[in-house]
Amino acid sequence: MTDATIPETPSVLKTASRLLSGLVSTPRSTLRTLSGSWTEWGGALVILAGIILLNTLLALLMGREGLGTQLLDSARSGVLTSIATATVAWLLLLLLCAVRVPWQRVHTATILIMIPLVLGPVPVLGHLMLLLFAGLVVVVIQEVGEQPINRSLLLTGLTWVALIALALVATRLFG
Predict the structure, then answer these.
(1) pTM for this prediction
(2) Which residues contact 94 (CB under 8 A, 6 or more apart)?
(3) Residue 122 gets which letter from DSSP?
(4) Which residues contact 45 (CB under 8 A, 6 or more apart)?
(5) pLDDT (tens digit per residue) in 115-151
(6) Mapped to the 3 state alphabet, what secondary structure does 43-67 carry?
(7) Closest by alpha carbon to 109, among 138, 80, 132?
(8) Alpha-carbon gap, residue 171 to 133, rounded angstroms
(9) How many helices and strands, by DSSP H and E, does the chain display?
(10) Most buried pick, 35, 53, 62, 133, via CB within 10 A?
(11) pLDDT for residue 66
(12) 19 with 40: CB under 8 angstroms?
């Protein structure tokens, strides 16, 4: 085989760049066209690592102490938020709507809507970005799960109820 006949496979970094640029130019269609491929999921994980690093840097700039502590706290929060939100939304789509969507596709979309959470350490903006993230779950369910708006709103409410219940149980079990 010559170099001309070998198909080029997209790298994870190129995929992350494509996801970010697509999210800036056409956010809904970017979420709609997610394939759930492993490369796309890897690109989303690179974006999640960037979110964690930027969140850590902002926390340090806001005067919080300890690089290691802030990095671990940001990593724990980012990973748990992305996994829990994606898993709950995926399970609700599967169990209540009988929609089979690859978990990687839902997780990739969840990571993409987490980008505003970079501003989490900023006093007022952090709370506003959390509300924005909560609202953007509707878009993930509507575009990735291909659900009508009314059902998306209901599933989003159920997603947040389940996430709050998970948080309460985790707090109770792990202190």
Answers:
(1) 0.86
(2) 100, 101
(3) S
(4) 12, 111
(5) 888 888 788 888 888 889 888 999 999 999 999 999 9
(6) HHHHHHHHHHHHHHHHHHHCCCCCH
(7) 138
(8) 22
(9) 7, 0
(10) 133
(11) 85
(12) yes
CA separation for the pair 162, 6 (Å, rounded): 46
Given a contact cutoff of 8 angstroms between Cβ atoms, the answer to whether 92 and 158 are in contact is: yes
Q: How many CB atoms lie within 10 A of CB 170?
A: 12
User: What's the CA dihedral at 91, 96, 101, 105 to 10 degrees?
Assistant: -50
131 in helix, strand or coil?
Answer: helix
Backbone angles phi, psi at 65, to 5 degrees: -95, 150
Determine the Cα–Cα distance for residues 84 and 151; give it in Å rounded to an integer.
20
Residues in the chain where the model's pLDDT stays below 70: 1-10
Q: Assign 148 to helix, strand or coil.
A: coil
Which residue type is seen at 148? P
Rounded alpha-carbon distances, angstroms, from residue 8 to 11, 15, 17, 128: 9, 13, 17, 41
Residue 140: CB partners within 8 Å, gap ≥ 6? 31, 89, 106, 109, 110, 113
